[in-house]
Amino acid sequence: MEHISFPPLSRVAICGGTHGNEMSGVYMVREMQQKQKADQVGSVSITTVLSNPRAVDACRRYIDKDLNRCFTDDLLSAPVTDSTPYELRRAQELNAQLGPKGSQEAVDVVCDLHNTTANMGLCFIFYSLDWITMHIYKYIKSKITSAPVRAIQLDIPMSEAYSLESVGKHGCAIEVGPQPGGVVRADIFNLVKEAVDLTIEWLQGFNSGSTFEGGEVEVYNMVKSVDYPRDPTTNEITAAIHPELQDNDFKLLHPGDPMFLKFSGEAVKHEGEELYPFFVNECAYYEKKIACHLGKKFNITIPSVSVKKD
Amino acid sequence: MSCATQRVLRTVTDLSGPAGTLPMSSYNNSARFNEARRVAIFGGTHGNEMSGVTLVNLWVKNSAEIQRKRVETKPFITNPKAVEKCTRYVDTDLNRAFSPENLSAPEGDDLPYEVQRAQEINRIFGPKGSPEAYDVIFDLHNTTSNMGCTLILESSKDHFNLQMMNYIKKAIAPASCLVLLNEHPLLKYSTSRSIAKHPVGLEVGPQPQGVLRSNIFEAMRVILKHALDFIELFNEGMEFPPCTVEVFWVSERIDYPRDANGNIIAMVHPNLQDCDWEPLNPGDPMFQTFDGKTIHYQGPGTVYPTFINEAAYYEKQQAFVITRRETLVASAIRKA
């Protein structure tokens, strides 16, 4: 089996409130800030970040613009003026604090906590094939039994990567649902806490010299998004996600399976190849014209990893 | 024995009869009500509660589904600015804005948007408390709580509403539709529907804010269909025999444990989460702190919690409300 060594991963950032109404991350960061006697946990120094404090105060996803779309190389280097939206400014601040993105000074791992209204269980979301992030996913998947644990890969080059976790040398978003905006559910919070604790545990194990065996991991990728049926004149939606698709994220959708139920009573069916739906009926995606994403499932072989010993 | 029960026992003939009988046998002391000629259906009182917004928009475009003989039914978006922004409210909660003070305040652009809206709605559908007020207003809401279909009653003495709710419950059986009664002098609030002679709240959950779930939408639609059927039958002269209605009577509001700065320090316990309407006994888990400790319910007896973990109530200092189960008796009713 292939084996890859990495330098120690000593600096990790745990971020919450990137969307101000996704409450697990908000309370997780608050809890960590209150309880942490020191910022150093063994070999790992932890920075906790409340990414979008104004949105958290207002309990809204964002104030001017979705913060988690502000981290492309172009947006991070754009000049800031008086009329620059709050989140663009904040993204540049976060990039200065945790990055700069793509540089040697960037923190080793960024772990960004999110919630979704979709029934997705616990999902790791990352760009490209990052062995560190995938090992953390593999480790957490082997330890957490109370919810399904899955991974979604976004195949986007780093320069165009738009979300917060792209600022670190390694990064992932941990997306947990279902949870309504503005609500903290204890079962979902406990799951997020377990994932964060296991992430730190893995990093400590890695830094102390453990070898983590590689192997096959199952990952989903995104093929396309599907919008709601809409009225051509008013653009208002004319259907809701069909009851047979609702809450069935990651259940294979076959051609002919119902996807939407129109208010007039007829079903709209999935056409085309078999695909896996996810982010089904995510609240924040109505304005992005996304009813769900559709993707494929595949296996990736990851190498074993350990820390580089000088 | 309550006064209501005494009154009905003098007159009751068949308590177990079906909801609605032809006016061949008449009940003594049927309460008489005027025909309900003017009915409104409010959606978007909270702009991010999507079932009501969607239903009302649908019916504004095409009202065939809500037409009934002898009644004018008006679908109406109460808070259009909040609907536009997909937010609960713009300045202040519209569903708390219909107080006598607000409604009688001098008009002005400096008033909060929702207070201006309340005055406007009072002009169109009221005035509240007057003979000109609409007969019935259905106010459509969603909740993040696992309440299923809930009808909200504001007065235990509104026999018209009690009969309507009994009719709806029987019509959708075996599916369930529970009745929440909020008559508590301190916890009661000035709702948009309170403009009408017979205010009916319709609360369906669980549904996240800003999300439209098909099952929730269709459930609300069915309830309204039965409600309008009842009104049509009533207006045609049908007599409804006395009946009993089980209600959950609001008695107390329970807040989250908070620190000195007002931040919550615990969450609704996993054992209580989603258990709306189920008995909560002294000693049962109620909250869980962020570091895993359990806080137990310490009340004197078994209660029935609801509105458990409603998103909008964190800022109103409410983790859930406590209710007690009561049976109300509705007298027979027929049109005047």
Q: Which structural traits does this protein have?
A:
heterodimer, A: 310 residues, alpha/beta, Aminopeptidase, N-terminal domain of TfIIb, 2 domains, ten-stranded mixed sheet, three-stranded antiparallel sheet, 6 helices, 28% strand, globular, B: 336 residues, nine-stranded mixed sheet, 24% helix, 24% strand, disordered N terminus
Describe this structure in words.
The complex is a heterodimer of chains A (310) and B (336). With 310 residues, chain A is α/β, with parallel strands linked by helices. Chain A folds into two domains: 3-219 and 301-307, Aminopeptidase; 226-291, N-terminal domain of TfIIb, CATH 2.20.25.160. Helix content of chain A is 23%, strand content 28%. Chain A is built from six helices and 15 strands. Chain A has a ten-stranded mixed beta sheet. In chain A, strands 10-11-12 form a three-stranded antiparallel beta sheet, with no helix packed on it. The longest helix of chain A has 22 residues, at 186-207. With 336 residues, chain B is of the alpha/beta class. Chain B has a domain at 31-249: Zn peptidases (Aminopeptidase, 3-Layer(aba) Sandwich). Helices cover 24% and strands 24% of the residues of chain B. Chain B has helices at residues 3-11, 50-61, 80-85, 100-104, 113-125, 159-172, 214-235; strands at residues 31-33, 38-43, 72-77, 136-142, 148-153, 177-181, 198-205, 243-254, 266-268, 285-289, 294-296, 304-306, 320-330, 333-335. In chain B, the strands form three sheets. A nine-stranded mixed beta sheet of chain B has the order 3-2-4-7-5-6-8-13-12. Chain B has a three-stranded antiparallel beta sheet with strand order 9-10-11, with no helix packed on it. In chain B, helix 6 links the parallel strand 5 and strand 6. Chain A binds chain B through residues 27, 30-31, 35, 59-60, 117, 178-187, 189-190, 193, 236-237, 240-243, 246, 261, 263, 281, 283-284, 286-287, and chain B through 54, 57-58, 86-87, 144, 206-215, 217, 263-264, 267-270, 273, 288, 290-292, 309, 311-312, 314-315. Chain B: InterPro entries: AspA/AstE_fam (IPR050178), Aspartoacylase (IPR016708), AstE_AspA_cat (IPR055438), Aste_AspA_hybrid_dom (IPR007036). Chain B: Substrate binds at residues 95-96, 189-193. Chain B: Its EC number is 3.5.1.15. Chain B: This is Aspartoacylase. Chain B: It comes from Collichthys lucidus. Chain A: Keywords: Cell membrane, Cytoplasm, Hydrolase, Membrane, Metal-binding, Zinc.
